[in-house]
Amino acid sequence: MRVGLFVTCLVDLMRPSIGFAALRLLEAAGCEVVVPAGQTCCGQPGYNSGDSAAARALALKLLGEFKDCDYIVAPSGSCAGMIRVHYPALFANDPVELEFIKKLSGRTYELTDFLVNVVKIKNIPGRYSGTLTYHDSCAGLRELGVQAQPRALLAKMPGVTLAEMRESTTCCGFGGTFSVKFGDISTRMADKKCAHITQTGAAAVVAGDLGCLLNIEGRLRRNGDMQTRVLHIAEVLAGEYGENAWK
Amino acid sequence: MEVTAMHFRRKATEKLNDANLQQALKKLQSRFVDSRATALAELPNFTEIRDAAADIRERAVGHLDSYLLRFEREATARGAVVHWAEDIEDANRLVVEIARRHGVRKVVKSKSMVTEECGLNDYLASVGVEVLETDLGEYILQLAHEPPSHIVAPVVHKSKEEIADLFEEKHRRPRNTQITEMCREAREVLRPGFLSADMGISGANFIIAETGSVLIVTNEGNGRLTTTLPRVHVAITGIEKVVPTLEDASTLLRLLPRSATGQSITNYVSVLTGTRGKDDPDGPEHFHIILLDNGRSRLLGTELQPMLRCIRCGACMNHCPVYQNIGGHAYGWVYPGPMGSVLTPAFVGLENAIDLPNASTFCGECAVVCPVKIPLPDLMRHLRRRQVERHLRPWSERAALRLWSWAAQHPAVYALFTRAAARLLHRLGGKKKSLRYLPGASGWTKGRDMPTPSGRTFRELYQARRAS
Predict the structure, then answer these.
(1) How many CB contacts within 8 angstroms connect chain A with chain B?
(2) What confidence score (pLDDT) does residue B468 get?
(3) Is A148 among the domain residues?
(4) Do A219 and B448 touch (CB under 8 A)?
(5) Mean pLDDT of A180-204
(6) d(CA B399, CA B382)
(7) How far is A35 from chain B (nearest CA, A)?
(8) Which residue of A44, A49, A226 is the best one to mutate when testing the B interface, meaning the one whose CB has the most B CBs within 10 A?
(9) Domains in chain B, ordered, with CATH?
(10) What is the mean pLDDT of the segment spanning B387-404?
(11) How far is B153 from chain A (nearest CA, A)?
């Protein structure tokens, strides 16, 4: 099965290790993985800022690049949700394009959802020992139903203890451009999330979306917490962290 | 009511730093979020009821004209007088005309957000009619000269202590902080008001086309006194509140209190039909129903039409992490939270509420909890799109977005751009791998560090790996 990895623009720029971790996991699950070279952004920033024309152009560009793939997988519920749920909405009034869009958007998955429900991965390559707490990112949770999948995967890792935080499904305050436009509100939301994380006593907080992770890490560090690690679920599952990921 | 939605950003920051408010907002979780979850868990067929509720509301809104005319016919046949108000000036004028016709000097009111929309209390006061709010929350706000901050729990922003201070000052009685005692005190003050009022004004949770009835749900009993004791009853509500049948209303009632306060049913559900009959022991001699449009019909046939399904339960705001942190006043008009972020721009103009559709992370919880399945984030996104079309967004934002989407459509340029950004930010981040200040993103860095990129983009590293 030919799987196209959509790395996402945030991972490409900010934390490539997550992309390599996703790659490793998909390969470990027996997929033939391709990473289309021209990929950039799914168009969500434009879409959510009211620029549908830009979002439509990027949707067609992305799906064109992945058109030879059986599946599109992204290490992000937000970007996968954009492609799976919102692309068809963007072309609702365009029956010709819609046909093409739906064919691929319906085969787009968030990474953990894909690993659990499509390829049914058996062996998790990563090793981790310690206590983790998991934050449910909004789009993955509410648009794609990603909640049990990451937990099921973590449960396969013998060294991992999951300590659930209070209100793990409450938004961390990121919200894309919201985090800059309404910085004060966003920071307060992040603050509450950080408090719930700290209360668990976990050594690391894990989530499936880099946007949330940057927001949470930014607030933890500003509050003086230099200890709690902030990790993407792919990094934990693949055992690829930070700079070691591509060496 | 005065619109101050343009000051959302400044007011939101003020509210974040208001210690009393922050304390008061902690109630939301247990009183509304947890209790809703418990109440809905009791329903074995919640999903089916929710589907049915959404269908009923969609059907009513989709055939608004015919159900409203049916309502008018049935209500008129039972002795009520139905008035149509195109805007708030119409509604206020109609109330005053009715008051004058019946020689009314004193009015008691039960809770009504539509009359907040109209600014009715101030208008009545300006023409010399005395108004007493009888819903406990609204009464407290009348004493405090404040607008409501929540559509179901208007005074949720105040602590018990603040209310005790207010009662002590206004009632000139010894300070009391026992809730039951405070309620008793309010009841004692309000009771003579009911007995001396010439007219009662209520809202309506639903109006029922097949019987011409007005249905209201309350918990305090003041609604019944307001609508049955005075000789004149005026019900004011929005045209979208119509439902076809009593059966439909009962379906909606299975979700409304559960979604609003976590009650399986409110203490009182009043179905008010026609005027006092010959053998009735109580009820008004005159029953006027004012149906207000004020922008609602403009939404019909547009992408915002689903908003007219709203049954005003408040679940969207109770569950909104933005509302939970800033409360309702920052939204700057009658309707706060996600539903207000759609209704306020729709009713008072997109240009007068620029921030509201943007003041959401699109976390989606509002749509999840909405009992009539209003896709609130989609509606807010639609308003954002209209802002762009009408050039209401700041030029800097438009320029940044345009640059971003142009670059994203040109992979080679994009690769160069991100390569440079990854290196520059990595270098700036230094050993700490984060920035405490980033020009152009001060909204972020004011409260959070900005983790910096690890130096090279995935694209570069992947190409290098493939080449080796």
Answers:
(1) 200
(2) 82
(3) yes
(4) yes
(5) 98
(6) 20
(7) 9
(8) A49
(9) 46-297 (3.40.50.10420), 408-467 (no CATH)
(10) 93
(11) 22
Residue A244 reports pLDDT greater than 70: no
Tell me the nearest-neighbour CA distance from B17 into chain A, angstroms: 10
Residue spans of beta strands (DSSP E) within B121-227:
130-133, 199-202, 206-208, 213-218
Residue B225: which of B189, B255, B201, B251 has the closest Cα?
B201
When CB atoms are compared, the residue of B326, B451, B461 closest to A217 is: B451
Is pLDDT above 50 for A227?
A: yes
Q: Could you tell me if A105 and A19 lie in one domain?
A: yes
* Contact (CB, 8 A) for B233 and B95: no
Domain C-terminal end among A70, A98, A118: A118
* Together in a domain, A35 and A135: no
Residue A232 main-chain phi, psi, to 5 deg: -80, 145
A129 Cα to chain B: minimum distance (Å): 25
The span from the CA of A155 to the CA of A38, in Å, is 36
Quick one: pLDDT at residue A242?
Answer: 57
Contact map slice: B 330-359 vs A, CB within 8 A: 355, 358-359
Counting the structural domains of chain A, the total is: 2
Query: Do A239 and A143 share a domain, yes or no?
Result: yes
- The closest CB to that of B458, out of A19, A38, A181, belongs to A19
Please list the helix, strand and coil fractions of chain B in percent, rounded to the nearest 5, in that order: 55, 10, 30
Comparing alpha-carbon positions, the chain B residue that sits nearest to A58 is B409
**CA-wise closest residue to B204 among B75, B47, B341:** B75
Whole-number average pLDDT of chain B:
96
Inform me whether the pLDDT recorded for B261 exceeds 60: yes
Q: Which CATH number is A92's domain given?
A: 3.40.50
Residues A35 and A76 occupy one common structural domain: yes
- Rounded to whole angstroms, how far apart are CA atoms B301 and B55? 16
Per-residue pLDDT tens over the stretch A45-98: 999 999 999 999 999 999 999 999 999 999 999 999 999 999 999 999 999 999
- For residues B401 and B338, the model is more confident at B338
Q: Mean pLDDT, to the nearest integer, of B66-75?
A: 98
From A66, A96, A118, the end of a domain falls on A118
> Using the beta-carbon criterion (under 8 Å), do B362 and A175 form an inter-chain contact?
yes
A54 contacts on B by Cβ (under 8 Å): 401-402, 405
| Residue B462 at interface with chain A, using a CB cutoff of 8 Å | yes
Residue % of chain A over a pLDDT of 90: 96
A217 and B358 in contact by Cβ < 8 A?
Answer: no
Model confidence at A34, pLDDT cuts 50, 70, 90, reads very high
Residues B385, A52: C-beta atoms closer than 8 Å: yes
Best A11, A20, A51, A247 member to test B by mutation, with max B CBs in 10 Å, is A51
pLDDT on residue A240: 75
pTM (two decimals):
0.96
On the question of pLDDT at B393 being above 60, the answer is yes
Residue A21: domain span: 2-118
pLDDT tens readout for residues B152-202: 999 999 999 999 999 999 999 999 999 999 999 999 999 999 999 999 999
Contact A35 B462 (CB under 8 A): yes
